[in-house]
Amino acid sequence: MRFFIFVFLILASVGTPMSVHAGKDVLLSIANTANTFGTVNPCPT
Questions:
Q1: Which of 4, 9, 10, 43 is the most exposed place for a label (fewest CB within 10 A)?
Q2: How far apart are CA 42 and CA 40, in angstroms?
Q3: Separation between Cα atoms, residue 29 and residue 24, nearest integer Å
């Protein structure tokens, strides 16, 4: 979880609209992947 916070802080520190838009796409894909793994192989976090 700390890794995702670290990545989020990096994206927030860059601050350009294009990187923010790309960051949202990356976070959405990460969330979708996490949801997929959560349904297939749930693990307590």
A1: 43
A2: 6
A3: 9
The 3 state secondary structure assigned to the chain is CHHHHHHHHHHHHHCCHHHHHHHHHHHHHHHHHHHHHHHHCCCCC
Residue 18 within any structural domain of the chain: yes
Q: What is the pTM of this model?
A: 0.37
27 vs 4: CA distance, rounded Å? 9
Q: Which two tokens stand for residue 35?
A: 């949801």
Number of domains in the chain: 1
Residue 45 lies in a domain: no
